[in-house]
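Review box. Two proteins, two foldings.
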Amino acid sequence: MDEKILNHYLEFSQYTDPGPYKEILKKSLPSDVKEIGLLLRKQIIHKMTFKNGNTGSNKDLRYGDMTHVPWYRQPEDDIFVTAPAMLAELFRRDPRGLVSDRGAENKLILTCRFVSILMSTLLKIKGIPARVRSGFSSYFDVTGLPGGKSDDHWINQYWNQDKSRWVTIDVDGSIEGNLKFDPYDIPEGTFDFSADAWLSVRRGGIDGNHFWNAGGHGGLIVIAWELFYDFHCLMNDEIIYTHTPEITNFGKFDKLTTKQLEDIDHLAELMQNPDKNFDKLMTIWNTKKEFRLLNGALL
C-alpha cells in the first residue's frame, strides 16, 4: 500500500481529532483492534435500543438496563458531533473514562456514525490507519421494514499490516447475537458499499427500493446521500447526517441532468477502488464544488 494513502488515514480530521484525550487514551487503550472495539461498544447505547428498552436484542441486558437511564435522556446525535465532544461527555459522566463496566445511565445514546467516528479516533491514536465508511447493511434490521431490505449503516476499515489489506469491521453491531460472521473481519460482499449500490441501481441490476434509511426513505436519493457521506469519509471529512451536497436535496435530486448523474456514476466507479483511484478522488475533492460544498440547516 502506498505510504501516502496510509498516512492520509492516520491523520485526524476535524471530527476524529481526540484533542486533549490523545495521550491518556494512548496509554490506557488495549492494542488489539477487537478489544478496542468491544470496549468502545460498552460506552454507547443505540437510540433504538433505548427506545425498545429491555426487549429484543437487549432482553439479556447486554447493552445495559434501560430502566437505569434517566427518562429525560434523548438521542444525542445532534449534541456530540465530534470525537472530543463524545469523549468529554463520557469522562464527565464517569471520570474513569472508557471502562468496561460503565453504567447504562452514564452511556451516550448515539447511532452508528458516532461509533465509527470514535473507533476511527481510537485506532489512529494507536497508530493504526483507519477510515469510516458509509453504506448499507442487510444483516440486521435497523428500520423495522419488512425483510429483504438493506438499511443505511456506517462502519470502519483499518489497515492490517500483517495481512497487508483493509479489514472491514462493524463495531456498532459487534455484540448483536444474530450475526453469522466475524464483525471484526466482515467477509467481502456482506456490507453493501454505497458505490456498489449506486451503480447496481443505475445499471438496472437491482431495484433502488432495496435500500432504505432510518428515516423511512428509500431509493436512489438515499443511496446518493450514503455515497456522498462515504466520499467525504474517504477524504477524512466524516460529515453529519443532515449535511449533504445541495444536489441531493428533495426537489433537486429528481431534476439532475444526465451529465450530473453520469458525473456521480464516475465518482462511484472510482470509489469502488478508493486506493487505486486515490489521486483521482483527491482531484475531485479539490475541484468539484457541487460534490464537496454541503447543505444543511445552517449551511
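Next protein.
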Amino acid sequence: MSNRFEQTLERHDLSLRRESPQVLQINVGKRCNQTCAHCHVNAGPARTEIMTRETLDRVLHWLAQTTIATVDITGGAPELNPHFRYLVEQLKALAPPRHVMDRCNLTVLFEAGQEDLAEFLARHEVEIIASLPCYAAENVDAQRGDGVFEKSIRALQILNQLGYGSAPHLPLHLVYNPSGAFLPGPQMELEVVYKAELQERFGIVFNSLYAITNMPIARFASALRRSGQAGSYQELLVNAFNPHAVANLMCRSTLNINWRGEVYDCDFNQMLELPWHDDRQYSLWDIDPRQIAGRPIATGDHCFGCTAGAGSSCGGAIL
C-alpha cells in the first residue's frame, strides 16, 4: 500500500526513482561532542556506533570499482571516528582521487587530539560544510549548547586563515536550519544577511549558505511531541509540498550508508531504518553499482520535509 507521500506524487503524475549515483554519503558513526536539539541522528558524546577500519576498507574497495566522484562524510561528528583521517587519505589516493566533503560542527576542532584537524582538512583539500544555524549567539547556543557559538566563530576564523572560504580549492559552506517548527526563509536572502553579519562582526568569509528544513525525526521529533507541535508541523510540510522540487531530490543521485555499511536511500531513511523496498537489508558490497539507476526510492511522511517550499537537501534549498 502506498504511503501519503507516494499518493501525493501520483496525484501530480510524478515518480521517484534513482539515477546513476554521483555521491556516496557515508555516516561514519553517531559519536558527537554536541547534543543538538534538532539532530535527526540522535548523536551525542555517549553514542558508541562507529564505522570500523575493516568496514571502511570494504567501502573503499567498492568505491574504487565505480565512477562515483564525490564522497560526503557525515556523522555524528565524523572527525571523532578514529579512522576519519585514514578514510580521507585513502579517498584522495584512489585513481582518480575523490572529492571529499566533511560535515563539520566546527567545535570539534577544539577537541583533544584534533588540534591539527583544520590543517589536515586544508592539506587534503576537503570541502567543509559547517553547521551554524544562526549568526546570533543566543540562538546557536539554545539549539546546540552553551558556548557553541563562540567556539564556532573561532573555528571559522581558523579556517579562514588557512584559505577556506576564499581559496578556490578550499570551499567553506555554512548550514542554517530553523530554530523551531517552521520552514527556513529564502536561502539567498539569508545568505546575504549571514555574509554581512559575519564579515562585519567577526571578519569571517564563506562561500554559500545552505538552508535546510528540520526533519521530524529522532530528537527534533521528540521535541515536537513534547511541545504538542508534531501534528501541526507535519501538516505544514504536507501543505507546502512543491512538485517542482521532486526532480532535484538528493536521493535520486546520492547513495547513503550507515556505520555498518548498510545501504539506504538517504540519511533520513537510515535513521528511520527504512531500507530499500524489498525485505532484505543490503550492505554496500552487495550492490552492483551498474544496477542502481531506475530503482524505486523508499519513502514516508518525512519526505515532505525535502519537498516543502523551496525544497531541502544536504546542499540546501533545491529551487
